[in-house]
Design goal:
heterodimer, A: alpha/beta, seven-stranded mixed sheet, 19 helices, 10 strands, B: MetI-like fold, two-stranded antiparallel ribbon, 2 strands
Chain lengths: 366, 305
Amino acid sequence: MKLIIKSLLIAIALTCSAQIAVAEENVVHVYNWSDYIDEDEQVNANFTAATGIKVVYDVFDSNEVLEAKLLAGGSGYDVVVPSAGFLARQIQAGVFQKLDKSKLPNIGNMWDVVEQRVEQYGPLNEYSVNWHWGTTGIGYNEGMINERMENAPTTSLAMIFDPDVVSKFADCGVHLLNAPTEIIPAALAYIGEDPSTTDAEVLKKAEPVIEKIRPYIQKFHSSQYIDALANGDICLVIGWSGDIFMAQYAAWDAENGVEIVYAIPDEGALMWFDQLAIPKDAPHPDNAHQYINWTMDPEQIALATNWVWYANGNLASQPLLDEELFNDPAVYPTPEVLEGLYTVPTYDAATQRVVTRLWTKITTGY
Amino acid sequence: MNIKEIQVPSFLRRAFNGRNAAISIPYLWLLLLFLFPFVIVLKISLAQPVIAMPPYTPLFSWGDSLWPKIQAGLDSYLFLFSDSLYIKAYLSSIKIATISTVLTLIIGYAIAYSIARAPTRWRGILLMLVILPFWTSFLIRVYAWIGILKTEGLLNLALMTLGIIEKPLIIMNTDLAVYIGIVYSYLPFMILPLYANLEKMDMNLLEAAADLGCRPFKTFWNVTIPLSLPGILAGCFLVFIPVIGEFVIPDLLGGTKTLMIGKVLWGEFFYNRDWPVASAVAIIMLLLLVVPIIFYQKSQEKAIS
């Protein structure tokens, strides 16, 4: 017994001293999305080389998981990357600190177009800077679609929301994101309603639209479609642009003959933003500012962008981007298409409940 | 100085003698890892959701008065009964758990029985094979089933190559896939208690039955099964109870129509950010499980006495 207590005490002492050591160390704890930086995390390595600050880099795969950690408090992270809608609510909840712009000399590199769009969610530019942004659109397997329908309306939401069209693809597998705030606005855009609405009555109009195509949807899931699309297990999806490009790359890499295409729908698409921000209880706020400033360096962000194949919010980095990437209108939309992209504001608690309940009814039938 | 000279109050001495200390460890365990978290969840379930850190109202608020104001309400519980979704989800979870438990029992009994009746030198190896999958992460094993069951998966490929079917079977993303995943994942929990029971069964009883002219199947039904009842009960509860709250398997293998309380709870917590309602869902689930747990306890007590 004595021995156990003794060893326990030693273990506790060791943990404590280890923690003290970490606090004194020159580190920054970054929590970012999975597969969201260049392959070898060169951006982080360069940061350590330039500043001597070690980067502890962790990844998450859903805004919800990040939010639960942040709301519980004491996450221990210095820099996190929530999407704009979530960030706006988290700012309201008092999760984040305002950025000290005097510590961010690179902020002049940022792209005002993106900053203006982000501002639609609230005072986000005071608390965050953009990492990457993208759209929610249509991904499809070209061969499988052509086989089943000639001249399929591949750049229209009719692909998904017209029962006559989508029913043709039911046998090769159709997935939708399991994210009410992505799919409900898309359904509204398809029937010509305002996708940015927060009016519960208008939101409810999406239900019959999705209900009609419900029998042809194999699954509502927010990550399985990447592999499934790349392997040819499914042929059509509403998903996030970068994920679909990832599937495209995976199929190309596997040389399995699968051709994946991403299209921004003509009816408009949701434009989303992932923003770097610093929690109020960040243990190393100074290092966090230095890290964020580093990501706004055109060369560094270009390293990540050229790998993840999303658009970034850094204007100065555009000449450094892969030409194929920068000229791809599915990644960097033309000004006209950009005009048609919409954002979805943060719903209040009551509206959120209506949306979630609507979604449960749509997805499960209950 | 002699240690015995130190005066320790007798009640303290009694409390800290070796035997009591040993007994208190499981209680301490329960207190720390069950009761304490339970009280926290209960507390959250009585609060109101707010946009704040943490996202629910505090139970006590200190105003100008001397005493704290208690803010607690049963709103979250009432809400669960205002929408049929939750009741349906509970019932659906119970249904899925019951069917999977029966399936696991049938398969698990056959396996446990054959291991227990195998030659002694084989038993260790066979038992090891049952436990072997635990060496790999649970998540990876469930993912492996996606590879087997999907439309272009191993199962369909094999069946089509053999010419048994022409069109691929749609198993992935259906309730059937969920049952396969659950039965596979929980099988060891059924086999191990059954094996422990069957292995120590007195073979003389079976011989006696045979000597008296009882047919093998009748012997199995009238002697083996009743004697293994404690093992059956233990295995069934070990499977039924965790399956009720299962989230990973229905999420990965199930289709959109698979309704389970674990998924509903996840949605309340993550999508609605309504921690109080999520906590209420969890508390009611616990209350539902208390019934079979008490039942199990009773049967265990009977088995011991």
